[in-house]
Structure prediction request, 806 residues.
Amino acid sequence: MNAILSLSTLVPSLDDKKIVRERLSKATFVGIDFGTSTTVVSYSVIGDETTPIKTDTIPILQTLQDGRIHESHLVPTVIAWYDEQLLIGTGAAQLKNQLTHNVNIWFSFKMGLGVDLGSQYFNTKLPKGHAIATIETPVDAARVFFKYLKKHIEQYLRDQGLSSQIYYSVSVPASFESNQRRDLLSALASAGIPLTAQALIDEPNAAFLSYIGESNFSSLQIYIPEGSPLHILVFDFGAGTCDISILEIARSPHGFSSKNLAISRFTALGGDDIDRQIVDQVLLPQLLEQNNYTRHDFRTVDLNKRIIPNLQRTAEELKIRICKSIAAELISKKLPAIASTEESIKLMKELDIPLSQKQLKLTDPSMSYQAFQEVMVPFIAESSSLESSDISIFSPIESSLRKADLELTDLDMVLLIGGSSSNPHVQVALHKYFSDCPIEIPSDLRSHVSMGAAINSLILNGMGYSLIRPITSEPIIVITRDRRLQTIISAGIEIPCPQKVFDFCTSEEVQFKIQIPICVGNENKILTVIEIDAPTFSGFEPNTWVKLTCELNEDKVLNVSAAIGNKQVTSTMVNPLANRELTTEERIVFEAEKNANELAARNGGKPTVESLLDLVEACADAGDYLRAAETLETVQMLDKNNRRETNICYYYDKAGNYNQASKWAEIAYQKQVTSTNAYNLAIFKEKTGDFSEYERLMTECLQIDANYNAALLIYGKYLISKKNKRGWEMIERAFNLMYGSFVMNILDEVEYPRLISAAKVLNRNDVVEAVKNAERASKAENKWYSEENLLIPQGNYSDNFIKGLP
Prediction:
């Protein structure tokens, strides 16, 4: 047997090669690498004896803003609505600095797939019913993008005289979860690109297929010893994700075999994140200095939706120039001296950033080599506590090695793919980390995956064979009573996963609702909560049996159904609100944001006051006080008849933005003299050292409301520091008022820290402990689902169960 690895050795012998060859000759097999920043399309067709499989990229025609046509196989994953026309690709990307993100230009929408936030682009210029296109969600944007690709793919194949019978394969990050794949498949189908089963291929696997195909026509030969499998780690670092896959290639007397050993968890980490760090550490300070502003002069919405997106393209341009300059001098896998110098790359241009009330300009943006090196430090940092360092490329690497139960010394080769892998800082860090393992870098990092997807389409659709079966990246689990977690689909199993059935039952008491929280990875990343209401007012009978059926199909799409007795009661699967772990409070924020988006979309892009107030409350509960303050500012502009300056001041103060808090305290006091407004302004007068005004305002506050707890406590402490006995009386009065409310269970939780403070002054340690216990109990309560609605698993707590978080 030939021990050299090749596509022909991986594909099993076919019964009737003539029939298969005839079928292959009548079709064209297309692979799409749908990237966060750049998309590439390739095709494969059956060749001759010299070249059994012919694979090449497909140039896509892209209209520029001036009407000229640009032809390239590299298609920026960007859509723009400009001058009453739809631009996709290079022309759209050129407008990043001129248009408004998610209003009339859309990019990085791949990373929004699988997230259900309603009409996320509620200010879109292409709303539902538009004559040209609809883009209200990431799925909408993906559909429009794929429809454009399909049109130009078909035209190119016609021009080349290739078969119009097209079979597609589309690459995705290996760690893309069920919800993300489901949205992608939906966008493809609605764009007229239906995929056969298993036609979604993990990007690292596609890269490996392309590498094997490429190696067949080069001097490189991969020898596989019999009985000693080859372990290959594929490092895929693109614009949006850092994806790791570990493959095992083995040879036995029966032939070659290939399989996934492990893939990393979904990590939203890529070149875009590096660009954002460049903006944050380099370009934003330049912009603020040139325009005489500070960060506090801008609302978060201005920074995140207008300023930062407008600076990101410039950051990317500076990054690319510096990387190319360093790469040109790279010797012996070590960074050249220039990489740590103060020498700068400068772009001779002026950037305009329009805001609602001001115009910003950035002239001659620049970045030094040393500044870029500092930006890269956290991305390439090795650490003994990588679990908490999601920004490091070594976090998913370590995670994958642990899952595969391999050491670094067990690896035989590392294959780099993805545009961000061309970053010399990344390459040098990887060479140091994999010091005893050869690292292979394809000649074209950006086209590699699409070519592998095209080869996969040919082998899968033409020969009916899947070379590398995908596996699950993380376990899928159900939260049951007592916060126990039952694994329903394990990590690392091959897909498709056969149907699995699990039995649960309700408690021994009557339940009026059943909730089944389904998570991926751990209990903080909830995919959905299946809810079943009791069919009658009397509720579910005690110990009602519930059967849960789940399966993962060939494309890693999860299907779950629940049945009571012989009747299926639900099979609803809801996309999670985010592709990351969320706290209970964060989930509530996302729910409120989704509702606000939906209502704004129905209201012509204008948010409703009621939905924004719900979002403010959710943000405050989640501790995101800055967003609460800024959202409430928007409410104040929309609803000028109601006064909300006091709460705006409060939330800014809780967020630590004292400049804005002080400003709104002054506005609130001028609008209306109340005990609260006098108290708030007094606090800021003390901070500035205006003690006479502080004393006047505190006195005024207590004249208006003699039982104002906060003033009694804070002003009481102030008077004690001045040796004034009235201070002790005030603190004792504040304590009695708050403790009385606490005992009656009517004290607002906001007052808990004040009661603790007063108790400490009066040496009431028993009260301190009681209030702290109440605080802990309140934080432990889960608002996403109720413990009393959860099910009880049947059978012993075996290896299928893992203990939940305390």
In short: Confidence is low (pLDDT under 50) at residues 796-806. DSSP finds 23 helices and 30 strands in the chain. The longest strand covers residues 242-252.
